[in-house]
Amino acid sequence: MNGREVRRFRPRFRAGHAAWLLLGGFGLAWGLAGGGLCPSGRAAQRDSGRIEARVDALLRQMTLEEKLGQMTQVDLGALKDRDDLWRLGLGSVLCGGNTDPEDNRPATWRRTVLDCQRLTLQNRLQIPLLFGVDAVHGHNNVLGAVIFPHNIGLGATRNAHLVESAARVTADEMLATGIHWAFAPCLAVARDPRWGRTYESYSDDPALVAELGAAAVRGLQGNAGRDRYGALACAKHYAGDGGTTWGVDQGNTECDEATFRGIHLAPYRAAIRAGVGSVMASYSSWNGVKLHGHRYLLTEVLKGELGFDGFVVSDWAAIDQLHPNYKEAIARAINAGVDMAMIPNGPGQANSYRDYLRYLAELVREGRVPGSRIDDAVRRILRVKMRLGLFDKPYTDETLLARLGSAEHRAVARRCVRESLVLLKNEGRVLPLSSKVRRLHVVGPAADDLGMQCGGWTISWQGGTGTVTPGGTTLLAALRKAVPAGTEVTYSADGTDEAAAAAADVILVVVAEKPYAEMMGDRKELNVPEEDRARVRRARASGKPVVTVLYSGRPLILGSVLEDSHALVAAWLPGTEGDGMADVLLGRAEPVGRLPRVWPRDNQHLSTSEAEADPLFPRGFGLGYARASR
């Protein structure tokens, strides 16, 4: 805590405060480890009524400054003086992008989060802190946590129950580190794979995104009812982020309202029915109007028509994009319906959280932001905190730490990997690999690279190569463990070991996109890298059966890779559990994955609407070992 000793809180009781505490005498907290039964309709009504009474009582006591503090979310790296947590009554902290505690270990995360909570609870009304993190495919910022396949792989499973189980594990590991809020699931319906966030989308089909997104909400928040959350989900990015022209990140979605509603709003209807407690606005625009300033979509549609009663959080510094004058940008965002502002800048930087608080207070006093809008935003934030049980139990169960990265959790991820693999080609039934194979030669640097197997948003924002986190298993390591006794697995990263190739019964080549995340992942063409195509060509020239496994965050233009491979498996970005791939390749599990999106034939017809006319593979395609080969 920057060398400062945390002060012991001494409760201060005032008239009204005691009454509020009496209203808070019931307990809402429940852990995912303990589960919970869905309350009856009458009990749920009582819970809702009690929460609203608590919120009203607390709001009546709050000053304007205390209300504005609740509407402020600060990146941990921007908190140069953590005493601002209680002095300013800040409502939320996040660790975004590459902001991590010192050594990034689970126990350090937990200590950091709990220290922030202890400081925050020194505020006058003891309003707890809500801590958020980008847990988008597992608790992926934390060393040793289980990393699940990215959403495009989960989309290939078409298994809502499995997606819910994966989200429940994510919540469990997140709560172990003291964190209650995941900025997930992403409900983008990615219509153009040139977009660098395509892998965060379950599908280009809004119905599948809706089904799996709702399942993820249930998994994160639990099934104890609308007014009791285990952890907090965040449906993002509202709305239309997956429909931008040419797949440009933070771009413009150009379509009429009927199309927008049918494709891009549909998943949010399902998430709201599932009880999602928070929604993140999108950087993108709809017909030229940025979503962060879009009152019709944020207030009239989301909160009015769809009945969303949680709160809307902005994306990272996204408010700044609404106007060059920061004060004007704040006015536009809050009046449009943003309830909490995500602010990555600290004191001494432009557009810092202190600037935000000062300008927003001025806007209220000038009448440019109505007091009723402030009360609505704060009511929504407090409602969610009470549904999480934070007022009654601000600290999570420390015993959950023992389950982070556990064999039980990894087993769920392994099943996700198994069911996500899509068999695109199986000429001569090369797969599954026969038990008679005595020499298996594995080629490609990605075969033994955990970072490439996991992709972006893994430990760091853009991801990385190499052993990025402990506890994971690469495909090469998984195969070496799993092959029958007497089978030799050889390896050549560059594929130039001609002797090993000549001695092999089968050559397995792993080709891959290098890790990337938003913005950096946008591409104009989607060809498989030439060095990977060359490795597959070299393997084919050996005259041996060639199995190609593709790691990618989207369908790539396969070109010669398809012709040069006897078997081809789309493995997406499978995460840490390479054993799941070995299960399918060795025939211990049937390939059941089906393409969650259209696979384009060439770079001239990449978007879904273009590719559907003449796809290389249609949405829903996937071979099984018992079915005819392509």
The percent range for strand residues is 5-15%
Give the full name of the CATH homologous superfamily of the largest domain.
Answer: Glycoside hydrolase, family 3, N-terminal domain
Number of domains: 2
Q: Classify the secondary structure makeup into a structural class.
A: alpha/beta
Low-confidence stretches: 1-39
First-to-last CA distance: 60 Å
CATH architecture verdict of the largest domain: Alpha-Beta Barrel
Radius of gyration: 25 Å
CATH class of the largest domain: Alpha Beta
Query: What is the percent of helical residues?
Result: 25-40%
Describe the model.
- This protein is an alpha/beta fold and 630 residues long.
- 36% of the residues lie in helices and 11% in strands.
- It is built from 21 helices and 17 strands.
- The strands form four sheets. Strands 12-17-16-15-13-14 form a six-stranded mixed sheet, sandwiched between helices. A five-stranded parallel sheet has the order 4-3-2-1-11. A three-stranded parallel sheet has the order 5-7-10.
- The longest helix is centred in the first third of the chain and has 21 residues, at 41-61.
